[in-house]
Amino acid sequence: MKHIVTVQDTVTAFADWMEPTAAELDAIEREMPLILAQVDLLDAEITTMDRTPTELDVRRVRRARRKVLAAGRELANTAAPLVPEVGA
pLDDT, tens digit, for every residue of 1-24? Predict the structure, then answer.
């Protein structure tokens, strides 16, 4: 009979020493407006899934889509901190 064992790293994937770095947290913070806009869009779409959308539902989804596009545009247009090149 073969024993099935788990890989320890998989079981303890969220160990104390595996915290996100400051750079990763900063990136999440920069992307947060887009993330929140996408959540709003998903919420609006889920609301209309099990019924015929009303005019108000259609407006809500349309407004949420515009919000996602605007947040994505803002994120794309903001200059990310430049990382110095190696040897520069």
Answer: 676 666 655 555 566 677 888 888
- Between CA 29 and CA 38, with CA 35 as vertex, the angle to 5 degrees is 165
| Chain position carrying tokens 């903001």 | 78
The b-or-e profile of 38-64 (16+ CB within 10 A means b, else e) is: bebbeebeeeeeeeeeeeeeeebbeeb
d(CA 44, CA 56): 11
